[in-house]
Design goal:
mainly beta
Amino acid sequence: MRSTAGTGTTYVTRKNRRNDPDRMVLRKYDPKIHRHVDFREER
């Protein structure tokens, strides 16, 4: 998962592709800009 703020920060997550086939979006902390932003799944 990559930050939508454009800082290049990533999180590694696991998900069940059968239950959630579309891309996941989570609101997580981005330490480079010191705030919470949306992190979007990339493949």
